[in-house]
User: Fold these one by one.
Assistant:
Number 1:
Amino acid sequence: MMFPKGVTPDGTHGPFEMANVAAAVIDAKGTVVGWTGAAERLLGYGAAELLDRSAATLLAQPEDASRAAEVAGECGARESWVGLVGARHRDGRRLEVGLRVTAMSDTADRKAWLVTAIDVSKAPTWAVSVEVLEAFLTRSPLGMAVLSPDLRYVWMNDTLERYGGVPREERLGRRMSDSLPGLNTEALEAQMRRVLETGVPVIDYEYRGWTWADPHQEHAYSTSFFRLDDPDGRPLGVCYMGIDVTDRWRARERLALLSEASACIGGTLNVMRTAQELADFSVPRLADFVTVDLLEAVLHGEEPDSRPPDGTYPARRAGQQSIHEGCPESVIATGDPIAAPMSSPYIQSMVTGTSTLEPCLDSDTTPWVAEDPARAESIKEFGTPSAMWVPLAARGTVLGVATFIRTEHPQPFEEDDLLLAEELVSRAAVWVENARRYTREHAAALALQRSLLPQALNGGTAMEVASRYLPAGAREGVSGDWFDVIQLSGARVALVVGDVVGHGLNAAATMGRLRTAVQTLADMDLPPDELLAHLDDLVIRLTEENGGDDEPIATAVLGATCLYAVYDPVTQLCTMARAGHPPPAVVTPGGKVVFPDLPAGPPLGLGSLPFESAEISLPEGSLIALYTDGLIESSDQDIDVGLSRLSDVLAQSGLPPEELCSAVVNNLLTGPQTDDVALLLARPHALGADRVASWDLPTDPAIVASARELAVRQLLGWRLDDLVMTTELVVSELVTNAIRHGTGPVRLRMIRHDKLICEVSDASNTSPRMGHARTTDEGGRGLFLVAQLTRRWGTRYTRSGKIIWAEEDLPAQVGTKAGADGSTA
C-alpha cells in the first residue's frame, strides 16, 4: 500500500486516508451535530435533513439499535472502535459501511464522537488495511520473509519462524546460511540474486533439506521469489514465500519408486529370482536389510494352503540383501528352511495376512526374540533395529513374508514407510504369483514333454546314437523339436527328427502326436517318402479339426518339418526323405563332411507337392547328423555360416558320438539361443557276411524240407543250438505260405543281429492273414504258431513284392557276448 509523502503508516491509515471518506459528529445524546458533503454523497441525506436529529435515523433496521448501543458502550470504554454496521440510505436501501468511531471532548468536558464511514462495496482496500494486512501476513500458513538487497532478513512471519526452528530475533539482520545449515542456501541465494537482477519472479522452486525445527528428518519445500520495488521502480529487496510440501514430495517419491520397481522386479518368471529382485530393489531405497521368505508350496509351483492342517508354515529363504556385503545380519542362508517362534510377527503375518511395524525392536524386552537366540545375537551385534513384516499376498492367499530392517538409517520406520512397503510387496506378490503359476504350468509341460520324448535311444548293435535337446531360452524349457530312433524289421534302424512351429504346451502336445504317428507308420515298414505322405495327410486332418476351435494347436501343426531316414546294416544303404527340413550332414570314413542334395519336399500340412526319397551309402566308419534349424540359424547368423561351423566340428569324427554332440553344441551355440535345438548323431555299423545267410528257393512244396535243413545248418554254425526247434517251425511255415499263396521267386534270409531274424520274400503283394482255425481243421494255424513262438512278426512291402519276417530272442549268454564285442559266439 502506498502512503503520501511524509506520512508514516501507524495503523490509523488504510481506507480512511482517502479524501472522500464520509464523516459526521454525534454528541453525547446521539444527535447529529456535524455532517460532511462526503456523508451526503454516501447516504443521500443533506445536512439540513440530519443536523440536530437523532443518529438512529441512519440505522438500516430497528434491531440495529442494539448494535449501536453496543458500539456506544465500547466507545465509552476506549478511545475508538472499528467495525462494520448496516446503514440506511435515503432511498431506503441498506448499505454495509465500515465505521471508525473516535471519542472527542472539549474544554467544558463535553463528550462527542467523530464517525468516519466508507462503503465497503466500493472500497476493496478496506480488506487490506494496515491492521488486517499485518495480521494476514503474520499468521499466513505460507512462510514469508523480506530480505534486503544484500540478502539479509528484515522481516519474516510466524510460519517461516516455525519452519526454521530458529527464533525471529536470531535471524533478522543475518544471512540465510547463518541459521539454516541443513539447506542448500547457496542455491537459494542464487535464485534471489537472479530475481533482484532481472525482476522476473521464480515460481514453485523445490528443494529438500533439514532445519532446526526437525533436524533428523529431511523435508521438502516449494518457494516462490519476487522483487519489491519503490515507486520509482528501484529494488528495495526480495520477498519469498514458501510452504512445506514434504507430503507431496513423499507421495511423488513413492509413485516414482513403485514405477521403478515395475521395471526392476518381475522381469522373469522365476519365483526365487523374483524374490531376490524384491530384496535387491528395497536396499537401500527403503531398508538396510531385507529378506523375502516364501512358502515351500509356492517354490514348487503349488497352490499354498490358506490354513495348513498341521498349523505350521514351512517356508524357505528365497531372497535377501543388505547394505553390508554378504548379508552378515542374516541367520539363514538363501534356500534354507525358516525356523521362527509361532509368536513372532513373522509367523503372525503368515497367519493373519496383516503387516506389523516395530519402530524399535529391543531384544531384551521382546519375548519372541528371547525364544530365538540366533536372531537375538544378531540384534545385539548390529544394533537395535526398526522392523516391518509385510505378507506377500495375492488373490487372498499368503505366499510368504518380506521383512524390512533398519539398523543404520537415522529414522525408524513409520506408518508412511509401512504403506510404501505394503504397496511394493503387494505388487511383488502379483509377480511372484505369476511366477508360481508359470512354474506349475511349466512343470506340467515338462512332464508332458519328457513323457513324449524318447526316454532312451537304442540303435542296437547296428548303430551308435547320441542326442541333445535344447529348448530356446532355457535348457529346461518346452518346445516342439523332437527326434527318435526306431528299430525296424530286418535289423534296420529309422532315424527321425522334426520341428513343430512355436513353443510351450501346444507345441509339446503337437510334437507328441506327430512322434506317435511316425512310430505307428514306421511299424508298417513304409518307405520314407510314403511315410511322410501319410504324415502329411494326418497333419491336414489335424489342422481341419482344430482350425476353428483351437487356433494355437492348428498353427503348431501346420508348417511342421520332418526328416525320416532308414539305415539297412546289411546293404549299408540309408534311404531318406524330408518335409521342408534341413538336410542331414554326413561324415565319410575319411572325415569329409557333406550335405546330401535331398529333394526338399514341402512342410507338413500343405498337401501340394509329393515327397521323394534318396539313397546314400553309409559304409563302416561313417557318421550322420540330423538336426533342427535352431542349431545352424539365428537372428545374427546366416544359415550358410552355421552349416560351415557345423562342418568344422563334425570333421572331428574320431570322437565318440556323445563327446561329438557336446562339441557341436558348445561350438555352435555360443550366444543367446533364439530357437529350439534338437541334434541326433548316429554312427552306423555294417553287418558282415558272417552274420547274414540267404538262399533262393524254387516254388516247389518239396523244397520246404530243404529250407529247414539249410536253416538248421546255419544255426549250428552260429552256435544257436537252442533255437533249432523253433526256427525249423518258423522257416517251415513261412516258406510254405510263400510257395502256397505267393509267387516266385522265393528267398529265405537269416540275420544274426542282437536278435535272430528269419525273412521269406516272394513277388506277391498279397498280405498274409492269421487264421482262426477250429479244432476240427487240419490247417490254418501256421502264422498263429509263428506269433506264439517268436518275439514278433510282420510284413513289409518292397518294389518287387513282400517280405514276411519273424524275430527270435537270442539265448542270454550268446546275446550278451555278441552285444559286447560285436563278434560271433
Note: The first helix runs from residue 37 to 43.
Number 2:
Amino acid sequence: MLQATPLTDGWILRHSEGAEAVLPASVPGCVHTDLLAAGVIPDPFLGRHETDVAWVGRRDWTYETDLDAASDHEQTDLVFDGLDTVAEIALDGQLLGRVRNMHRSYRFDVTGLSGRLSVRFVSAYAEAEAVRGKLGERPAAYAEPYQYLRKMACSFGWDWGPTLVTAGIWRPVRLEHWSTARIARVRPLVAVEQGTGHVELVVDVERTRVEAPLTVEATVGGVRARAEIDGASGVVRLEVPDVRLWWPRGYGEQPLYNVELRLSHGSEALDVWRRRIGFRTVELDRRADAHGTGFTLVVNGERLFARGVNWIPDDVFPSRVTRARYRERLRQAADAGVDLVRVWGGGLYESEDFYDACDELGLLVWQDFPFACAAYPEEQPLRGEVEAEARENVVRLMPHPSLVLWNGNNENLWGFRDWGWEPRLAGDSWGEGYYLGLLPRVVAELDPTRPYTAGSPWSGSWERHPNDPAHGTHHSWEVWNREDYAEYRADVPRFVAEFGWQAPPAYATLRRALPGEELAADSPGMLHHQKADDGNGKLRRGLERHFAFPEGDFDRWHYLTQVNQARAVAAGIEHWRSNWPVCAGTIVWQLNDCWPVTSWAAIDGDGREKPLYHELRRLYADRLLTLQVRERGPELAVVNQSAHEWAGAVRLRRMSVDGVVVGEASVGFGAEGRTVALVAVPKDLEPVGPKEFLVADADGLRAVHFPAPDREVPYPRPEFEVAIVPGGIKVTARTLVRDLLLQADRLHPDARADTGLVTLLPGEEVTIRVRGWETPDADAARSALYCMEPAR
C-alpha cells in the first residue's frame, strides 16, 4: 500500500546570495512568516511596516532540508502540493526540476536518493519582469506585474490589500512510497435521476510494472462495484438507489456520501482514494426573456435567488489559514444567511478545507479561475501553465457538491471593452482565448456536470456590452466610485455579482493595527490602511450626501461610515430582492479581509463583524420587509424566500420624529413560497417632509422609510436607559433612537455583540447579547452605544 511521509521538520531558510544568517523555516509557510517568527522583520500588518518589508519580495530565497528517500517500495516520489512560485528543486546540487506556478502541485521521482534537498525561489518580480520583456506590455488595473506569472494576484496589492509579494513552500510536502501502481487521478462524475444516484469514477494510474493486471473497487452508500484497469486508465460505475439530495442551506439538508476507491494487484491493495460527494443537480438558466437574458441558478430543479458574498484570500499569507479558520469564517457567512460564496479571481483555488466546510454548511461555491483585472498573455510560458493548472484544479474540486459554477475571470472582458485596453493592445493576446476557448473546453471535457461562464461581468455575447445589466452578470461600481447608493434603484440587473461600499474596521482592530497613533480619518496609519483610489474622499462624499460631516470627531466619523456602509448595501439588496425573479442574485463585495484595512468587507481583518455583517443577517433572511419608493409612491415588498406561504397583516404607521403617530392602518398580505408580494401604502400614510417617516411591522420584522436625508431630519436628542441583564444589556428608548449600535469591542477587544444597527420607537426596548465581556457595567455600555443625534 502506498505510504506517505510528511516532510515538515528540519527545514531552514537562507538568502540565496549566501548571507551567513540561517533561519529555521516552517513548512508549509512562506518567507515572510519565517522572517517574522525569527524577529528579522516587523509585523507588516502594523502601522506602516508594510513598506519596511517590501525588500523581501525582491530577493531570492532558498529552503533546505535533508532528504532520505530509502524505502522497500519500487518508487518514491517527492510531492509538493504548492510552491510559491518560481523555483528550482535540487538534491545535492542535481536538478530535479523547475516550477513556475503557485496554483499547481508537483511530483519528482527520488527513488533511492538521499542528500541535501534545496528549493531555490526566484523573486516573483524578476520572473514577471522577464516574461513581460519577452511577451510585451499588457494593461492592468494596477501597476504591479501580476499578469505575467501564475501566482495569487493580490499578493502584489489590491484596493483592499497590502503589497507583500510572497515566496515559499506554501502547501504540504511529503514523500510517497509505492510499488506496482498508484492512483494518479480520479474524476468523479456524479448525477441523480429519479431518486437514483449515478457515480462514474474515471481512474488514471501510474505504473512501475506495465504487465501487472490491476483492478479498482469502489464503494458508495453501501453499493460496491469493480472494474479492470486497461493500461493507464479505467472506469467504475455505481448506481445508488434512494439517495438523499444535497441542498444549499435554507432549502434542505446536506447529506454527504463517503466514496472509497481501492486499487489492487490481485489480492494486494496498492492505493486508496477517499472523498465525500453529494447528489444534486445544478443548471444555469441563461434563457432570453422579456427583460433580457437571465442568469438563474437552479439546484435540484429549484430556482434560487442567490444570497452571496465575494471571498478573497483570508490572509495575505495564505499558509496561515487553518482548517479551523476556514470553518469560522464560513460559519459566519452561513449565520448571516449567505447561501453562495464566490471565490474571486485575484486569489486562489482554495484548500480542501474550504470546500469541505462549504459542503457541510450548504454554501454554494462559484469558483473563478485565477484571472483578475488585467490583460493576460496567451503565449508560452503562460499558456501551458494555465491549461495544466485548470486541468488539475477542475479534477481536484469535482467531488464537492457545493461547487456549482466555474467562471473564467474577474472583469477582464469588461476591461477590454471599457478600460482602454483594446487600442493599447493593438492586436496582442489578452486572455480572450482562455475565457472563450481553453477554459470552457477543459471544463466540458473534465467536468461536464457543472456550468461554465466566461467571466464576471459578462453579458453572454460581444454583441452586447459586457456589463449590460439586462444580460447575464453585472458589476455595479458607478455607485461608490461616483454615485450615491440611491442609484442602485435605477435598474434591475439580472444578477449582481459585485457591489459594495467601504467602511473602516472595528475600533479594536484599528487600535491593534495602529499602536500608539492618535486615530483620525486622515491620520498617517489610517491613510496607509486605506488602499482604494481616493478611498477617503469617496467615504467623505458618500457621507456628505446623507449626514453633516463630523469634522475632527473620529468616533463619530467611524460610526457614521459604518452606518453608511450598511445602508448602502441594504439599499441595493432590498431593491434587487424585491424584483425577484427578474433579478436572481446578489453577491456583496466582500465578506472578508486579508489584513486590517478600511474596505468593503463585512468581517474585518481581525475577524470582527462590522455592522454590515449584522445587516446582512436581516437582508438575507428568508423573510424580508422592505419599503420601496416607486413611481406611484412608497410600496411594501414582502419578500418570501422560504418554501411556505407567508400571510398576515402588516401594521403601517406614519410617524413624526417626536414619536407621534400621524396615521395608521393594518393591511393584509400573502406571499407564496419563493415569491414577492407587493402591498400599496395608502396615500394618507405617505410621510411628508423631513419630520416624518413610515414604519411597517409584521411578524417581528420591520421596515423603515425616511423620505429625507439624515442631515435634514430634526432628530430629537436621543434618550434611553441602559440596564445590565444576564448575558448582555437592555436598552429602553424614551425617544426615537435611530440606528442604535453597540460597539462591543470598545468594552473589551474580545467582546462581541449579537445585534447590529437597530431603530427603536419611544417605549420600545432591545436586548443585546454580549459575549467576551467579563465585567459588565451599565455606564461602560452606554459609552459604547452610538445612534443618530440632532445636527450640530
Note: The chain has a mean pLDDT of 97.
Number 3:
Amino acid sequence: MSVSTRRRRWLTTCALTATAALVALPASAASGGGTSPFGVRTLDRLAAQREHSVGVMRPSLTAEDDDGGNEADEIAEGADQYAEARTSPGIVAPGAYGAAWDDLTSLPSTGGSWRNVTDLPYNSDDSRYRDIDSNSSGGSGNVTGRMAAIAADDDGYVYAGSAGGGVWRSRHGGGHWQPISDKLSSQSTGALALDRSGRLWLGTGEATTNADAYLGSGVYVLSHPHDGTFSARSRVGGDQLESTTIHELRFGGGKVWAATSKGVWSHSTKTLKGAWKLEFAPNPDYLPGGSQAADPSAPYKNIANDIAIDPKDPSKVVLAVGWRSGDDYNGFYTKGADGTWTRITSGLGDLPADADDVGNVTFARSADGSRYYAIDQSPEQLNTNPDSGLEGIYVSKSGSPTGPWTKIADYQGLAADGSALTSSGYMPGVQAWYNQFLTVDPANADHVYAGLEEVYETKDGGSTWSTVGPYWNFNFPCWSIDPAKQTGDCNPTTHSDQHGVAIGSYHGKSFVYVGNDGGVYKRPVNGSQDASGHATDWTSLNDGTIDTLQYYSVGVGKDLDHGGVSVTGGLQDNGQSILRSNDTVMGSNFGGDGGDTLTDPANGCDIAEEYVYLSIQVTQNCAVNDGSWLTDPSKATSYNVAPADNATGEARFIAPLAADLKSSSTWIAGGRHVWVQTHGYAIRSGDEWKSVYDLGAGHTATAVAASGGKVYAAWCGPCNNQGFTRGISVGNADGTGWHDIALPVDGTVPNRYLSGFAVDPKNADHVFLAVNGFSRHWTEGPGAGVGHVFESTDGGTTWKDISRNLPDVPANSAVVTPNGGLAVATDLGVVYRAPGRTSWQRVGSLPAVAVLQLKLSPDGGTLYAATHGRGIYTIRVRDCG
C-alpha cells in the first residue's frame, strides 16, 4: 500500500461484532531521497495516532462501552460500524443468517451463471504501479484475502480457511486450490484442525473480532478431507454453536474442545451426534436465553480464546478466557476436584494471572509433550502502552499448561531482532489482539514459530528470535523502489497480520504454512536466513486459483489502450486492485484498505479510490508510475483530494462516494456533510469540494446517490443500538432545495441502517432504498420494522415496501438495470426483481458470501458484484431475467 495508504492499513481490520482520520500525504510532500520513504513516514504518523489514543481506552468493559471496548483505534471503530449496520437498533437473535440462507436458496433462480473475473494472481508488488499511493515493492508478492486458519498433513495436503470465502484445499503442498465448503451457510472460518485419525474439523465464525468477521453456523467435520467436501450434514452436534465465532478447536480425552464467543464447549470425537456440552461460561446470564442476553455488552461477556490440555493427563485442562479490551472475568481457569471451574490466581510463574493483563491468548504444545508455549495480549498494555499490546511469549518447560511459565519474548526484544516495526508508537504486538499464531516444530520442541504482525522464529526455545517474516521491506537498507529490482535487494516476505499456521510435509520435506491478511505463504521449516535474520525462502501460495479477496467496492471503465474494460475495486487490507483487459496478473495501484471507488465509464484509467474516512486519492493514468516521484515529487500521478470531513473525523470508516448518473464529473461524498465537486477526475485538491448540506452534528452519511443534479443522502447518528437514529435528506448538487424527509412513524421505512440508493436513470424522482440489518422477527430494538427494499416515486417523500418474498437478510446496495429491473446485493448473494414483476429471484448460485456493491459495465450489459470474500463476479444482465 503506500506511504499514505499503507500507514492506514495497520489499524484496519463483521465480527457481527477510528478515531482521528489518517490523512494522506500529497505528492508534494514526498521525500527527496533516503532508503525508507514508506516505512518512516507511515510509522511516524501511526505513532502519533497511537500516542493520542492512550488513556482514551479503558481496560475494563462496562455496559456504557457502546463500542464493545471503547477503543480509540480505527480497528475498533471499523468493527463497530460494520456490526452496527447489521445489528442496530438492537441485538440480533441467533440463527438469523441460517434462516436467511434457507430462504434465499429456496427462491426461484434466474438464468445464467456468475463468472469470477479476479481468479488470477494479484501481485501487490506489480512493478507497473510504483506511484506514491501504492505499496508496490514492499515484498508481499501475490496476495489474496485474509486467511484465518491453516491445517496441513504429511501427504502434501494443505487446507486454508478464509475470513469470508470458505475453506480451500491444495493437494500439492500449496497452490492449485479448490474450494471445499461452498455448500455451507457460513463461509467465515474461525478454526481448522486435523485430528489423529486425519479428519478435518472446521469451526465457522472468524474470531479475530475485527471489522468484517462474520458469525458462524457451528462445527463441521470432514472424514476424508483428501477428496471430500463439507456439507450441512457434516455438522457436529446440534445448533448450540450457531451464531458464534470459534477461536480454536483442541483435542484431548476423547473430546473436541471449542473456544467460542459464547464460552468453552466440548463434544465427543467418537459420536458426532448429540448436543454440545457447555463446559464453562464466565457470565452465563449473558448467553442467549439468559436474563442479560439483551444487554448491549452481552457479545463480549463470554469470550474464550483457547484451551490447553495436559498431554500427560487430559483431565487437566486450562482455559484462556477473556475479552481483548478487558473485563473482570479475564483470566486462566482450571477445574477443581469438585468439578467447578475456578480462576488460577497464582503459581503460573511469569504468565500473568491478573485480569487486566490477560486478553487474547494462543497456546501451542510440542509433539513430545515436553513444552507448552503461549502468547498473551494484555488489555492493560492496550490501554496504556502506545507501542504494543503484547504482554509476552511464554514457555512451560514442564509441559503442563499449569506451568510454571517463563517469559521468553517481549515486544522490545522482538523489535530488536530484525523487526520492521521499530518506531515508537508501532512495535511488535501493537495488534496482538488481532494478530496471533503459535506452533511448535513436531521434530524439535525448542523450534517455535510465532505470528503477530510479523512472523518470528526461535530455534532455542526462546533464548533468541529472528523476524523471518518482516512486516515489509520499506525501512531496510536493501529496499529499492526500482521496478527492475522488484523488491530491491531484499528477499520476499509474507503479507502482514498473521492469523493461522501449520506445519506439514510435501515429498518428504517439512514446510511451515502461514495465513495472514494477504493469504497463504510457506517456507521450509528449517529454512535459510540472511544476516538480518530475515527468511530468504518464503513462497507465496496465492497463485490465482484461490480467490478470497474481500472487496468493499467495484469500478468498471473502458480500457482505451487495450480494448475491453478495466476493473478496479477496494479491498480489506489489500489496497485497490486493477485488472486491465489484457492482464494475466492483477496489480495494486493504491495501497492500504480500499473503501469505495469511482471509475470513469469512458476511461478505466480515471480512478478515484477511497481509503477510509473519505481519504480519497485520484489518478488519470491508472497510477502507472516507475517510482521517479521519490526524487522528483512532480512526477507523482495520484493526488490526495479528501474533503474536509476526513480531517475532522466526521465520516464513517467506509464512507459513501458516488458519481452523478448523468455526469461522471459530478461527485457526491458523504460525511457529516454532503460534499459535491464538479471537476471529475481532474480534481487535484480537497479544497475543490463544496459542502452543499450539513446533516447535523453527530450524523454521518451511510449512502449517497445522484442523477441529473438531484442528490439523495441517507444518514445515521447515533449509529449504534444506544438510541439509533436514521434519516434521509434530499436536495440538489448546486446546494439548493435541501430538506430532511419526514420518515413516517408507522415504520414504513424501518429504523435500521440505510445502506444504499438506486436511482432510475430515466426519472430522478424514482428511487429505491436498500436497508441493512434484520427485521423485527430477529432484532430486539425499537422500530426495527420489516422489509429490506423500498421504492419512492416522488423524490423520497413517500416510500413503499417492495420486499415481498425477499429473504430477511441485510441488503447492502442496489442498481437499476437498463431494462428496468432491480438487482440488490445482500449479505448472502444477489437477488433480482424483473421489470413489471413484484417477486424476487436469486441471481445465479454464489456461495453464502456477502456482496457489498453492484455496478454495471459501461454498456449496461453486464452486472459486476463486489463480494467480500470471493472476489469480483459478473453476469450478463439479460441472464438475470
Note: Residues 458 and 464 are 6 Å apart (CA to CA).
